[in-house]
Amino acid sequence: VAKRLEKFKTTIFTQMSNLAVKHGAINLGQGFPNFDGPEFVKEAAIQAVIDGKNQYARGFGVPDLNNAIAERFKKDTGLVVDPEKEVTVTSGCTEAIAATMLGLINPGDEVILFAPFYDSYEATLSMAGAKVKSITLRPPDFAVPIDELKSAISKNTRAILINTPHNPTGKMFTREELDAIASLCIENDVLVFTDEVYDKLAFEMDHISMASLPGMYERTVTLNSLGKTFSLTGWKIGWAIAPPHLSWGVRQAHSYLTFATSTPMQWAAATALRAPDSYFLELKRDYLAKKEILVEGLKAVGFKVYPSSGTYFVVVDHTSFGLPNDVAFCEYLIKEVGVVAIPTSVFYLNPEDGKNLVRFTFCKDEGTLRAAVERMKEKL
Ligand code: GLN
Description:
The protein is 42% helix and 15% strand. It is built from 12 helices and 13 strands. The strands form 3 sheets. The protein has a 7-stranded mixed β-sheet, with helices on both faces. A 4-stranded antiparallel β-sheet has the order 9-10-13-12. α2 packs antiparallel against α9 and α4 crosses α8. The radius of gyration is 20 Å and the shape is globular. It starts with 11 loop residues before the first helix and ends with a helix. Glutamine binds next to loops. The site of glutamine has 5 residues, from loops.
């Protein structure tokens, strides 16, 4: 394997889902729903295939989807963007992340992440030859330590990557935090890459897009996808929204990574994004009920549960059960209890920082969530 990928192992999500199958454990690890996406979107996909939308799409997206993304972004943020120049469709947000790093970061540039961070950020930055710095968000509230961020910024800092609502903690960046980060970025001429794939799963406060803050659109790449909002994580439709000078870099990388994304699925994605408001309200209401079951269940099991404002994840402190770290705890949980969670230490530059925390997902039907809680009550 190339040096730039030497330190990375099989992703923790793949490892854990494999163990779930091997041990017949209930999988509250990898974040994918065990229920299906909406009929009207599936039907749109079938129709697109039948209608012959089956050859290469335009590289940066089928026009109808670029339009639908721009319309959605205007509804959500009030920002008017040019679908032809500022929206790039990718194969999932994961490709948008890679294209952003490879298209906008030079070797030696510094990029600041907030730990715990989604694993692909560090790996794709490594592919781009960037230097990664990380600022640790600490429980109970995972607030942004602005002074630490300030001292981490140097003349080589090219970008700060944020993720709100935040995987794995469920933290949502507050207006004050975003304002403080924005000021630092403007002052130091730094870009923001913002991963907002859980924006429709914002329960405790309104989601705020960094791009909508004064002076920020021109230095922000907003990343999103269809997977979480429409319970279709296997479709792999994502996008990047950025001003033309930044979109250009993202598009250049995207052109040579995948060139274009599945054509019929893009047509169906456009239909999805034009769903009525009631769809988004219902999604949130359903997830709130699931969250309640898992959070109350985990508390009853005896975990210290940290408040999660958004996403379909919640992190807990496992230390009262006496295992030495998150990986040992997750192993015990799979083998002795029959439940899969995600150890969080892989999401830090310094794994020690995550050793007390594990992540559970509640993107499963209610029966599955209750069954997992019962197993833990019985056997932990
Ligand atoms: N985003 C999903 C999660 O955090 C996992 C995606 C993946 O498996 N790479 O669980």
